[in-house]
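Changelog note: in this version the structure field was regenerated for every chain. One regenerated record is shown below for reference.
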Amino acid sequence: MHRVVVRSDVTAAVGTGETLRTAATVVVPEPSERAARPVVYFGFPGGGYSRGYYDLHPPGHPGYSQAEHHVGRGDVFVACDHLGVGESDVPEVPLDFEAVGRANAATARDVLRRLAAGELDPEGAPIEAAAAVGLGQSFGGFVLTIGQAIDPCFDAVGMLGWSGIETMPPWPEDVDLEAMFTGTAGDGLDHPMRAVFHHDAEVEELVVLDMTRSGGMGSRAGWGADHAPGGPAVSGARGPLGPGVVAVEAAAIAVPVLVLCGEIDVVADPWSEPTAYRGSHDVTVAVFGQMAHMHNFAPTRADAWARIHSWAHGAADD
């Protein structure tokens, strides 16, 4: 498979007058292994995570790359950094989450254009997508919901550990939130959110890597990020937690929706989620055992990826 980093100019989409670019890694199969018209997935990570979350390669632990899973089946995977995250530009001019969502849509359109023009194939062959599928994990689902409602560019969207009704981590009753966010409430296996983010069945070494944050928002590992989507310049009181924060936008989504959760997650009642997406004619719910909020570390991650694959190809044929 072939990887190429794409930088997309999203200045016009953001609309603040500041010149801004996003970064994404496009992973394509070798021409002989590619579907005639592949599904193109766009993965947007959660708060404290960069695009590396979708292409995990922890030393000594193969089989953690969601991108490689999908590309190995003939499709294309695009792992995206939100503005303010990873290698994307960090805005300095105030912006809102609508602007972050528009930037992600502009990134997707730019990548699809480059694929169709043959710019991202090692042999210069054009790649026409059967469908463009947006995947938003956690905070990334918040931004994806807003973006798809105001600037729809995906043929289907997958909400991974994100609720269209109310996303609320099951905080331990005795946790000091201020201390947690400043890194003084515990780290590694003692991090207050470890039990929500990682299932007990996971490889402990990887749990320690992900939850050792040393007072920062994300891990110091290659998939961590210092900022939430949009970065510190995001203004306004709107955030991803609480009831009904995306009620209007979720109801406006008119494409197939997949709600995928772990048995331990931040979605209180997965089976109620279809009621949030009343504009969609096709809402699928899948819940996986031995999986907590950070799905791609779970023992059952490949089962979840396989479900995403079958759902996405069904949506492409819809």
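Spot check on this record: The chain has nine helices and ten strands. The longest strand covers residues 2-9.
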